Amino acid sequence: MTTLENGNRKDNGGERLEALREELTEAGHTIWLAGLGAVKRVGEEGRGLFDSLVERGRKVEKRQFKTIDRTLAQTTRRVRDLSGRVQSRVEVGVRDTLHRLGVATRDDLQALTGRLEALDRKISRAAGEPS
What we know:
It is built from two helices and two strands. The protein has helices at about 10-100, 105-125, and strands at about 1-5, 10. Strand 1 and strand 2 form a beta hairpin. It is rod-shaped and about 155 Å long.
């Protein structure tokens, strides 16, 4: 404590504490205001950010669907091609198996029918019958 000229005693420690209290109160209030401002900004910009993320998600989803459609079309073409190849190989295998077993195929029967018809016409002409 110090004594002033008029005889009153001055408390330097108390003044410093009061000044520190005021400074801390002001700093706390400033921090509070900054927090309120941050909350307000997040509220305002948060909606914009959310909308932006939704729009980006739509674009990604659209690209993914295009990729899926393209992949599906390619896969469908490949399956059709492979199916055609398998069917062709099965037909050749069946035809060869039937030939080995001596079973006539449709082509064999059609050729035989054609030969029989031609033979029938020749017999009819030889016998003098109209064809």
